[in-house]
Amino acid sequence: MGVSSIRRGQAAMMADRRVRLSRAGSAHPHRADANRNAVGEKHARITSRTRRRGLAGLPFPSGDVMDLKSGYPFWAIRNGLMHAFPRLQRDLDCEIAVIGGGISGALIADELAAHGHEVAVLEQRDIAWGSTAASTALLQYEIDTHLIELSQRFGERNAALAYCACAAAVERLGEVAAELRDVDFRRQRSLYYASRSSHLPPLREEAALRARHGLALRWLEADELAADYGLRAPGAMLSECAAAVDPYRMTSRLLARLRRRGGQVCDRTCVEHLQAKSRGVELRTADGMRVRAGHVVVAAGYAGQRWIDQPLARNRSSYAFVTDPLHEDELQALRATMVWESARPYLYLRSTGDGRLVVGGCDDAVDLPARRDRRVQSRANRLVRQVQQRFERLHLQPAFAWAGTFAETADGLPWFGAHAQYGPRVLFAMAYGGNGITYSMIGAGLLRARIERRAHPLARLFSFERSPR
After folding, report:
1. Under 8 Å CB-to-CB from 233, ≥6 apart: which residues?
2. Is residue 39 pLDDT above 90, yes or no?
3. What domains can you pick out in the chain, each with its CATH number?
4. 331 HSE (CA, 13 A, CB side)
5. Over the stretch 297-325, which tens digit does the pLDDT of each residue have?
6. Which residues share a beta bridge with 430?
7. How confident is the model at residue 439 (pLDDT cuts 50, 70, 90)?
8. What are the DSSP calls for 398-418, one per residue?
9. Which residues make Cβ contacts (< 8 Å) with residue 217, sequence separation at least 6?
10. CA neighbor of 239 nearest in space, from 178, 179, 166
């Protein structure tokens, strides 16, 4: 049942996508080739490895665009090509260059520009067309690594600081969304359920520790979960601090605002070479343009790992689908509550503003695009079965299905800041993990503090120098 519906949905989407891109191309003829490349990007393959030459200069492989997604991510389907940004066609001087035009780069650039910094954003694809387009955009304070485990690794004070910073970041994301408007930002509850009875004792301990640090939640027993959510599970934590957003739309609106405020935004601009010096950084693009900046922020998402000679994370694939809009009687409490589980990898659900359900999970270690492509439909069908086992009243039909690359660090924390390989003027933003958008909001303030030579409470914990106690 699911396979045929996905194929029909994908065929209809591709027709719609071609119409949208054709219209965008006719309005902006210089974008026609780039639009064709964007549609066919999932067929790109990594063909070479980045070479390293230390601080003197970093050559990046020209045209080496990392294939980050499979299938047809819903956000790009629904929104089409929202804004046209030019390719960089002249040399440029700026205070801060941000490499990466996804949600991380957009939040960081917005934070810097809002506080008086001159910013230029350079993106090798179309804006938001990398992993941002495949994100399911659950905004949570809850880190994939439990507070208890994080406390054992880095001390309870540091662990609680990270969790509370994530809670504050969800609130801050709401403020940014309110300024932008029309990005499908909605406050949610977060229901984290025990996948099996053996998970109940550690989950109760986790709930108690979170409550001790001021993170508001309540415990629901099995009968309450069945009555309130139609969920079959032995127990769960219900938190009030969560939200959902359209990440593709938010990124496009952030960067359009940046451009209106005088910032530079250039897509289809591939940085091929980086040279860090004592007083600044020089970039060279594949088209031969030079960019001179006081600082560079590398917010290139999961592809950023290839630029550092140190193992930082494991790349994995995650799978998702979205339904057609559901009736209120079907959604019920799920309209205002996202749901996820204690098993790893975990199943998760969240609603959209127009009443659809986004379902994700079935993560695997596959990082080969061709193999990931082939698994999209079978994984969507598996997700349907997993939902049915937990929610007997839900009979979901995937409308669109996709998969995307994501990265996991060993401790569940992100990397923000300078790396010894490049010196203090090249800063990295690697918001890896299950709540990458929340991390990116924290990282925006952290990197601004670093550029402004101010202290930040999470600078050490989120740095490349962190180590377990």
Report:
1. 193, 194, 195, 222, 225, 341, 390
2. no
3. 48-135+248-312+412-451 (3.50.50.60), 314-408 (3.30.70)
4. 22
5. 999 988 888 889 999 999 899 999 999 99
6. 415
7. very high
8. EEEEEEEEEEE-TTS--EEEE
9. 207, 210, 211, 237, 238, 239, 240
10. 166
Residue where the block lists tokens 């905004």: 139
Decide if 137 contacts 188 (C-beta within 8 A): no
Task: Provide the CB-side half-sphere exposure for 409 (13 A, CA).
Answer: 24
pLDDT digits 0-9 by tens, 287-298: 999 999 999 999
pTM exceeds 0.70? yes
Token pair recorded at residue 324:
């057609």
Which one, of 395, 403, 401, 404, lies nearest residue 7 by Cα?
Answer: 401
Which two structure tokens, joined as six digits, stand for 183? 């990005």
Contact 331, 394 (CB under 8 A): no
Residue 240 φ then ψ, to 5°: -90, -20
Please state which of the ranges 244-253, 334-343, 368-377 shows the lowest mean pLDDT: 368-377
Q: Are 88 and 268 in contact (CB under 8 A)?
A: no
Residue 44 has pLDDT above 70, yes or no: no
Residue type, 178: A
Q: Which residue has the tokens 């909001």?
A: 441
